[in-house]
Amino acid sequence: MYQIIELSTTRRTELIDITDQVRNIIQKSKIRNGSVIIYVPHTTAAITINENYDQSVADDITNVLNRLFPHNYRYQHSEGNADAHIKAALIGSTRTIFIEDNEILFGTWQGIFFCEFDGPRKRKVFVKIIPDSSC
Known about the structure:
alpha+beta, Jelly Rolls, three-stranded antiparallel β-sheet
């Protein structure tokens, strides 16, 4: 089974820290060791892991992606969101993270970010916890 995190984004491009929501799902599961799969079922959104201590890192990521893949470029895709599809394809729709002692196994400054590239929209993130077979 999986849990769903529901989000309402407010800008066309933004990174939203969802670490606490994922952490709460893991803690409620009482799974001691295993992995968590985080999946975004949208073709113009993504999921990534990066520094969540300093907001300027997320801002830098979105600013550079917007410069590399501008919204108003002459893409062939006619819906006006080709840049969002490209950004989502590059960042990716899935991340797998280890769970140890009912906690996310992270580096010091890491966090989980939902990446919106075609907002504002209502979005979903699927979170599936898989226990180690020995648990």
